[in-house]
Amino acid sequence: KAGVTQTPRYLIKTRGQQVTLSCSPISGHRSVSWYQQTPGQGLQFLFEYFSETQRNKGNFPGRFSGRQFSNSRSEMNVSTLELGDSALYLCASSRRAQGVGEKLFFGSGTQLSVL
Amino acid sequence: GENVEQHPSTLSVQEGDSAVIKCTYSDSASNYFPWYKQELGKGPQLIIDIRSNVGEKKDQRIAVTLNKTAKHFSLHITETQPEDSAVYFCAASINAGGTSYGKLTFGQGTILTVHP
Fold it and tell me: CA B91 from chain center: how many Å?
């Protein structure tokens, strides 16, 4: 079974530009979450989508947005890029079975560098 | 909101020794505690998890213990091997009423180095 796939693997942008990152979850998984990883702040939750609906959102500015498609694939968008947006962006998927302990499986991430 | 503290930030052991990483959490409503291993250039990989109704869970050389009263949980790796070298993250989440919102709060990570 293929894991979580994120594209592109690396991305270089300049300040003020916008960027779109893509995530394909594990087959059969219906929930997709996004995390930002930086050396200073660690792993921080961005948002979670299930059935094309945003279920939860972290403490990030409105420049960070996302969406989920009917096939569970997800994209996140960052507009008006700032230097501080340089980070590894991780996508994680889960099956979303009912009950406690929803196992999250991460992709390898998209390394975004803002110059 | 939830806050997770992880110690130590770096841990160096000899092959064959045991390694212990500890985490504390702030929100008593947290009820799910996974541990992730992240190798260079890869995303975090789930290695073991525990729910709040369980005090201990073991999987081969890896074990996790949970103390709900003290609000802390620990990862124990026995008979360490060089391939255990990686960054380890603890996390906590609140899963309420049978639904999950996928939000994990992570610790800052522990860089584990196992020397041959």
Answer: 6
